[in-house]
Write a structure and sequence with these properties.
The chain is mostly helical and 348 residues long. Helices cover 52% and strands 12% of the residues.
Length: 348
């Protein structure tokens, strides 16, 4: 087995991880872009054990939808709840992988969909020394020929965790003709930035500064030409996942509006919607608490009446109430409830 992407002997793992042979490592100088440099600086001091989205995922678990099958069901992957502390091996993979993703991300504010990582998973794994290539050969016991293959399972596991934590969007597509999976496409979500302590205002400010930086350095025209060439290349390629699904395009467009605050999703409207949702949540909680208090204060007769009125046709209840009113002149109260219960019990 050969390992691709290892820079030197320092890639050997230290004694803290024991069984792991190679340590994930990103040695390329960070891209000369203000957003990339800011994220790289934040990542240098980031503790993945304190990342609130990762902690929530590890506590609650999640289910990822892979692709829709011919019978209408979804192929899924279940991530079970785990201990909240992250193993050193996964931390190292996350550190190196995210740094590579930051290095290859598209930060152009004029892109149709923001923050796409312009690299395949295989390329990212190669950049951090986690792409393993198995040599082809014969299996000595079974006599079966084993084709050479490439593997980067730790990288796939880290990407699944970030996707389940809603820090990234991963676009997958299965080629029905060749029966193979096309190259994935990865986009940063707002939670990616929030996990590093950045608010949406901070992210919008960085996008604004990035545009000014492009203007200052005369890069707007060049960036537009590169973007058009990239779109043409992606449209003609049959090896990478497409963005043809309306639901996916709507999701990416909504994420862009959240990043930029454009159109109807301005900061003021988004804040108002957030306050409305919080108010509705509080009102619902208060209503549930009130119903619970009322339930605990009801007598056995009242509880039984509520049960019977839900089981019997409304006309039976209506006739019983009219009968009590005509014979006893009662319309409510404990005695009325007792008589109503006695009549309804005969109807069950």
């Amino acid at each position: 087995m050969s390992v691709i992407g290892l820079s030197n002997a320092s890639a050997w793992q230290d004694d803290r991880s024991g069984w792991r042979r190679y340590t994930p490592q990103f040695d390329i100088p960070m891209a000369n872009h203000p957003i990339a440099k800011r994220l790289d600086a934040l990542l240098s001091g980031h503790n993945w054990n304190r990342n609130r989205f990762m902690r929530k995922l590890r506590k609650d678990g999640a289910t990822l939808k892979r692709r829709k099958l011919s019978d209408g069901t979804w192929k899924t992957k279940h991530i079970a709840p785990r201990r909240t502390s992250i193993r050193l091996e996964r931390e190292q993979t996350l550190d190196a992988l995210v740094r590579a993703m930051i290095y290859r991300a598209d930060y152009c504010p004029d892109s149709n969909y923001l923050f796409e990582v312009k690299a395949s998973v295989e390329e990212l794994a190669k950049m951090i020394g986690q792409l393993h290539e198995y040599e082809p050969g014969y299996d000595g016991q079974g006599g079966q020929y084993r084709h050479g293959r490439k593997s980067c399972d730790p990288v796939h596991g880290a990407i699944d965790d970030m996707e389940a934590a809603e820090m990234i969007v991963v676009v997958r597509e299965f080629d029905k003709e060749s029966k193979t999976n096309k190259a994935k496409r990865i986009f940063f979500r707002p939670n990616f930035f929030k996990g590093f302590g950045l608010s949406m205002d901070d992210t919008r400010s960085m996008l604004s500064m990035a545009r000014k930086w492009q203007e200052k350095n005369g890069l707007l025209k060049t960036a537009k030409q590169k973007r058009q060439a990239e779109l043409l290349r992606q449209a003609e390629s049959d090896r990478i996942a497409s963005l043809d699904r309306p639901s996916l395009r709507n999701l990416l467009a909504r994420i862009k509006r959240e990043f930029t605050g454009e159109n109807k999703h301005t900061k003021r409207v988004m804040d108002a919607n957030h306050r409305l949702k919080e108010a509705e949540k509080r009102a619902s909680e208060q209503r549930e608490q009130r119903e619970q208090r009322e339930q605990s204060q009801r007598s056995d007769t009242e509880k039984r009446l509520i049960q019977l009125q839900g089981q019997l046709p409304p006309v039976y209840v209506y006739q019983a109430k009219n009968q009590i009113k005509a014979e006893h002149g009662l319309t409510n109260g404990p005695e009325f409830d007792a008589l109503l219960l006695a009549i309804l019990e005969t109807r069950t």
